[in-house]
Specification:
By secondary structure, the protein is mainly alpha-helical. Helices cover 53% and strands 8% of the residues. It folds into three domains: 78 residues, no CATH class; 75 residues, Arc Repressor Mutant, subunit A; 75 residues, Arc Repressor Mutant, subunit A (Orthogonal Bundle).
């Protein structure tokens, strides 16, 4: 099953269906790299080894995982972590980053709507506050698969806030509040490796917009890097405009293997 990037295509279906954190972890924990993605997902549908409550939900889980992930390619490290029993709290931030590689709307919402609200001191967030943003998503470079009704916009707005809540960025039910979020150290190090592979520029990793998804400002990212440098968990040198960042491993896959060794 060949993976095709749809990174600019907005799917209301995947947002409404939610983060599927536990389901994704369970599927990847049982993933067989010797078989294709189609074969692994066919086994999921056939055996329901995640204990889905209905055939409809099982079908939806398989469809969303097929849409979101490339386990044999860019998402291999994420699967390796689950297969080897990585702690869920450490794994969740990695999952969020991997999901947003092919979820334009979730990535754009977290980076360009939610983080600016957080950074400006907003405390509470209501679903209706997202409606204007969602109606203008096409102007941000996104392609929608079909025109959205008012009801779809309401469901997508609620879905985005629920996903943010599932990852610990927000708390509450109908009205969400920003949570006191802290990115675990091992998750932070994993993301440094993953972003370095994607961006191919060490200086751009430190200032990457991706950190906004974890409610981190550039100064906070650099502070954490300096702390890890102090404890010799990486090497970080700055001389004027020159930045040198040396990480423990050459790739995210290698670091993932070290994390669960």
């Amino acid at each position: 099953m060949r993976f095709l990037s749809r990174s600019n295509v907005v799917s209301s279906f995947t947002i409404i269906k939610g983060a599927m954190i536990e389901e994704t972890y369970a599927v990847f924990a049982s993933w067989n790299f010797a078989r294709s993605k189609r074969e692994n997902l066919d086994r999921l549908r056939r055996e329901n080894f995640i204990g889905a409550s209905s055939n409809t939900w099982l079908r939806d889980v398989a469809w969303v995982l097929n849409r979101r992930f490339d386990p044999d390619g860019r998402d291999r490290a994420l699967v390796l972590l689950a297969r080897n029993g990585c702690d869920l709290d450490v794994w969740k931030p990695a999952l969020l980053w991997h999901i947003t590689r092919d979820e334009f709307l979730l990535r754009d919402f977290l980076q360009n709507w939610m983080f600016p609200a957080f950074d400006s001191g907003v405390f509470r967030v209501r679903p209706e506050e997202l409606h204007t943003y969602l109606k203008g998503i096409g102007k941000r470079g996104a392609t929608t698969e079909h025109a959205w009704s008012e009801q779809t916009i309401k469901r997508v707005a609620a879905g985005l806030l629920k996903i943010a809540g599932d990852f610990g960025l927000l708390r509450g039910s109908a009205v969400k509040e920003f949570a006191s979020y802290h990115l675990p150290e091992r998750s932070f190090l994993y993301l440094l490796h993953a972003m370095r592979e994607e961006k191919q520029s060490l200086s751009s990793v430190v200032t990457a917009d991706d950190w906004r998804m974890f409610l981190m400002r550039p100064a906070e990212v650099e502070h954490e890097i300096l702390r890890l440098h102090q404890f010799r968990k990486l090497d970080y040198q700055v001389a004027g405009s020159l930045v040198q960042l040396s990480l423990p491993c050459e790739s995210a896959v290698e670091y993932a293997e070290r994390m669960v060794a």
